[in-house]
Amino acid sequence: MSEEKKPQGHTMQRFDAEMEELHRLTALIDDKVRRQLMDAVDTLRNEDADAARAVINRDEEINDLDVEADDELIRLIAKRQPVAKDLRDIMTVGKIVTDLERVGDEARKIARLTIHLYDNHGSSPNSQMLRDIPRMAEMGQKMVADAMACFKDRDLERAVDVIRRDFELRDEFKSALRHLSTFIMEDARSVGHMVEIVLALRALERIGGHGKNIAGYVIFLVTGRDVRHADLNAIAREIFEARRS
Fold it and tell me: What count of other Cβ atoms lies within 10 Å of the Cβ of residue 130?
């Protein structure tokens, strides 16, 4: 009997090692995309079109890592044929990687805004039109960072908090739109700049949405429940009651 258990234990050790490597790759992607976001915002703040191009070019690194992670996921499923909790872990990593790659895509949009605004030899926008972008970027990247910390620690309560903060980011987006509308009333020539800035703000709102998604995947990983369309308060109550029991 003991002889039959040894290969199984060895196989589990190999699986755990492979999952650890996959988690390391996911953390690397996370680090890169969040750095991309803040670098993109810096190019806007510094009116630096050349730095914005560098941010856009680095997006290829993230794309390559995305492909590498997908290949590893497919190989791991085919080789280990995981079930139950192990399969949920693999599914969660796959979903997280997809959302992280899309965060990188949204950061690229911010960098493109810098080029459109400051490398076209035309008029630059009033700096006050851009005032909401750094704050929304910080909120979005913090949501992603906290969601990834939830994934590492399997922290359900913090995951619920990340999901809740998505509502705050949406409110910031609406506030930013109201702020921008004042410039249109003062000077209709600001319309062109406003359209581009709104697209950037929308990209930042979506980054928060990706952080929310990752937090939801953590809840799925730990509980097996898909909470994408569930009531947030109900989720919070269930987690609190489970902690008490």
Answer: 22
